[in-house]
Design goal:
Layout lengths: L24 H15 L5 E8 L5 E9 L5 E10 L6 E4 L6 E4 L2 H12 L2 H14 L2
Antiparallel strand pairs: 1-2, 2-3, 3-4, 4-5
Length: about 130
């Protein structure tokens, strides 16, 4: 409901155009999922699910989906991040460590370490081999 005095109140938000444009963790993960989809021509697909995490955080789960195996999904890792994105945590069933990233740079470096690892490449090779059976 308005009282007709909206014109009397100035914009209290300040200069919204000056707000820094950020790249979200889910945008970064979607880019990596697209690389996977493209390389394997859809035989292996990256899929990210998003849900509320604990205490106001966001939980992202990166799955490798294999359409030829009735959409079998393998959980590659989970990212848990606060509203402001960092610090965030990455947990993977393939590794015995929970990674902590303080910045986007840390996140990108850790993602590269995980995605290019022998363990992940072995999982990709195993999943892809089953699409040819």
């Amino acid at each position: 409901m308005t009282n007709g005095n909206e014109q009397d109140v100035k914009n209290l938000w300040g200069d919204l155009d000056s707000i820094e444009q950020l790249r979200s963790p889910i945008a970064i993960l979607r880019t990596q999922a697209a690389y996977l989809d493209s390389y394997y021509k859809g035989e292996l697909q990256g899929n990210i699910s998003r849900s509320p995490g604990s205490t106001g955080s966001m939980k992202l789960i990166f799955y490798i989906v294999v359409p030829a195996l009735n959409n079998f999904s393998f959980k590659l890792f989970t990212v848990d991040h606060p509203l402001n994105f960092y610090p965030l945590k990455i947990d993977s069933p393939l590794f015995d460590v929970i990674y902590e990233c303080e910045s986007e740079q840390d996140f990108l470096g850790t993602l590269e370490e995980i995605l290019s690892s022998t363990e992940v490449h072995r999982a990709l090779a195993s999943l892809y081999a089953q699409t040819e059976s």
